[in-house]
Design a protein that fits this description.
Chain lengths: ~260, ~300
């Protein structure tokens, strides 16, 4: 017999203490965390950007390293949100049983999962913004319009946090997350215009890539860093918001089935 | 008003009915025990009462609120000590309490004011800045108890609060639980330790296979189900016990043999003790009957896993 729990008191601020808890943990380890999040993507960006870029003419009207810098911001944002929503959330949910402890308080599961969603998006903002600072210092951005990349980073982070939380709700162990990277994240990174323009791809593959959330983020961030207003900005924003909303609803449903059965 | 009222509660996982029509009530300000062998449905019953899983049938009222419909509201006045410690390993003792108080919507200043007295109550004064990894098992358990009290709850649920603790740590927890009861709080606990239930509980129920099989105060249950005296006879020389039991079976109301030990349950142990004084190769202990005897009688001696 499958009885269901009633939907609980809607609270707009219930996620906040959960977010605060994660922030307090992060603050204790902030410096190594920031350096770790920054070093890897920068090494790739500089190595490929200048090494490979030296052999390339300009790409889409800009030096390859600038082209890649925008892609790196988005890929780092995606990776930070994804790692947090998979490995870190799984530790709290399954290993440390932090979520169980919270569920004994007046907070409900929606508060916990929303707290994790916003926290993972916050981590992705830290990560994306840190890269943004470095590439701006290197002169790879153009003009104040690039500040609008920050909200675009948040939207991208939210979408990947919500998607990661679905996989988290289904995971029997940490090993399960490798499939998410090999089946979803890595192929998506290659067809979303992070490393090269998608018009290099067969048309059908570019079309698929264009629908994926990473490509939506890239479509917003790359023009902004170059000092231009993105084309079809509203459509990309709506696509990221819709991905977040739908994925969060699915993640919440699956997590409820897992923890409150 | 009952602190907790449970009527005809049911819960099934697949074909297996884990809670099968359970009813009980807990009076405010008392300590209530939920006893039963492993897999009897104790933890599931607690989770149902807290609104953490939906019942298949029945009614639960916790602190005046219908569960699960108003569970979040009810939990605002409830504290929980879970079976397994889930303290935050990244935080100090004080930070654990601070972060937990926020889940109840308490202001930081309010929580900080309570932290010293809670740590003191838990015997952790001076440990405010200690990391969780540096605490002993007993200290972690006490911090979990302090954490459950951060919202000054009316009702505290404790799922096996002293499992895995040494005798000193258990006595300290018992002492604190008695203090909480004196302060007017309602305690609802599950335990495997019959001495714990006998010491702490005003009333208790024994459940097995999701059903209530006995209910009452520890004393009343002992009087109802068990002869007042027990003589445990141990075989020291191998082969002496069985003939002794055969010969003296009728000196007592009831005899149970388990391995190398025979349990004689009696109203008057004197004839048996006289016979034991003559017997060779046997050792014995004479004691008053207790709740464990009741529990074993009701749920059997075979292992439950």
């Amino acid at each position: 017999m499958h009885a269901t729990l009633p939907a609980h008191r809607p609270s707009l601020t219930g996620f906040l203490p959960v977010w605060q808890r994660n922030f307090l943990v992060w603050r204790k380890l902030a410096l190594p965390s920031i350096l770790g999040n920054l070093a890897d993507p920068l090494i790739y960006m500089l190595g490929l950007g200048y090494g490979l870029g030296a052999m390339l003419p300009s790409v889409d009207g800009q030096p390859y390293v600038a082209f890649l810098a925008a892609g790196t911001v988005c890929a780092s944002t995606m990776n930070a949100a994804t790692f947090e929503a998979l490995y870190s959330a799984f530790s709290r949910m399954h290993v440390q049983k932090t979520w169980d402890a919270i569920l004994n308080t007046p907070l409900g599961l929606a508060d916990v999962v929303a707290g994790e969603l916003f926290w993972a998006a916050t981590k992705s903002l830290f990560s994306g913004a840190a890269i943004l600072v470095v590439i701006t210092a290197m002169g790879l951005t153009n003009g104040p319009l690039m500040l609008w990349a920050l909200p675009a980073i948040v939207l991208t982070g939210l979408a990947f946090a919500a998607l990661g939380l679905i996989w988290n709700a289904l995971a029997p162990s940490y090993d399960f997350f490798m499939y998410y990277f090999t089946l979803f994240i890595t192929p998506m990174t290659l067809i979303s215009g992070v490393f090269f323009p998608t018009d290099q791809l067969p048309g059908w593959l570019a079309a698929i890539g264009g629908w994926l959330p990473l490509a939506q983020g890239v479509a917003l961030v790359r023009p902004l860093l170059a000092g231009q207003v993105p084309a079809d900005a509203l459509m990309h924003i709506m696509a990221l918001l819709a991905t977040t909303g739908v994925a969060f609803a699915i993640a919440l449903h699956l997590t409820r089935r897992r923890l409150l059965k | 008003m009952a602190a907790l009222d449970v009527r005809n509660l049911r819960k099934a996982y697949g074909d297996q009915e884990v809670v099968a029509g359970l009813s009980f009530a807990v009076d405010s300000g008392t300590c209530f025990g939920l006893l039963g062998p492993n897999g009897a449905g104790k933890t599931t019953t607690l989770r149902l009462c807290l609104g953490l899983t939906a019942p298949a049938g029945g009614d639960i009222t916790l602190n005046g609120h219908a569960i699960p419909a108003a569970a979040q509201l009810a939990r605002a006045r409830v504290g929980v000590v879970p079976q397994f410690d889930n303290l935050d390993p990244d935080f100090t003792c004080a930070e654990n309490l601070l972060v937990f108080g926020r889940y109840f919507g308490m202001a930081d200043s309010d929580i900080r004011r309570h932290i010293p007295q809670l740590l003191d109550f838990a015997g952790l004064a001076g440990k405010a800045d200690a990391r969780i990894a540096t605490l002993s098992g007993g200290m972690k358990r006490r911090l979990t108890l302090a954490r459950a009290l951060i919202n000054d709850p009316d009702i505290v649920f404790l799922d096996e609060p002293t499992t895995g603790l040494d005798p000193q740590a258990r006595h300290l927890i018992w002492d604190r639980l008695k203090q909480l009861k004196s302060a007017g709080k309602t305690l609802i606990l599950t335990t495997h330790f019959m001495d714990e239930a006998e010491r702490l509980c005003d009333t208790l129920i024994v459940i097995d296979h999701g059903r209530k099989i006995a209910e009452g105060s520890p004393r009343a249950l002992i009087a109802e189900y068990i002869e007042p005296q027990v003589v445990e006879v141990f075989d020291e020389a191998r082969g002496q016990l069985t003939p002794f039991v055969e010969r003296h079976r009728l000196l007592c109301e009831r005899v149970e043999t388990s391995g190398e030990t025979a349990f004689f349950y009696c109203r008057d142990p004197r004839p048996l003790l006289a016979a034991l004084a003559e017997a060779e190769g046997l050792r014995y202990v004479h004691r008053a009957s207790n709740l464990e005897d009741v529990f074993i009688k009701l749920t059997g001696r075979e292992l439950r896993d």
